[in-house]
Design brief:
Radius of gyration: 13 Å
Order of helices and strands: EEEHE
CATH superfamily: RNA polymerase II/Efflux pump adaptor protein, barrel-sandwich hybrid domain
Number of helices: 1
Strand order of the largest sheet: 3-2-1-4
Keywords: Molybdenum
CATH topology: OB fold (Dihydrolipoamide Acetyltransferase, E2P)
CATH architecture: Beta Barrel
Number of domains: 1
InterPro entries: Mo/tungstate-bd_C_term_dom (IPR008995), Mop_domain (IPR004606), Transp-assoc_OB_typ1 (IPR005116)
Pfam families: TOBE (PF03459)
Helix content: 10-25%
Largest sheet: 4 strands, antiparallel
Protein name: Molybdopterin-binding protein
């Protein structure tokens, strides 16, 4: 698979929490957890489950930074 997105973070799925239509997928990327909200259909199509290798692919035009 090749993508135009350059922000591809390889990690392991640590948790998949399904809701009525959307799932939250947590991926451990070098000790940092990245959470994605995707459809339940996408979870099923990809066969996502804890322990599986996966990529968090980030495509964004803006990055915001905040401090307290």
């Amino acid at each position: 698979m090749r993508l135009s997105a350059r922000n591809q973070l390889k990690g392991k799925v640590v948790e998949v929490t399904k809701g009525q239509t959307t799932s939250h997928v947590r991926i451990d990327v070098g000790g940092t957890i990245v959470t994605a909200s995707i459809t339940n259909e996408a979870v099923d199509d990809l066969g996502l489950k804890p322990g599986q290798d996966a990529y968090a692919v980030i495509k964004a035009s803006d990055v915001m930074v905040a401090v307290d």
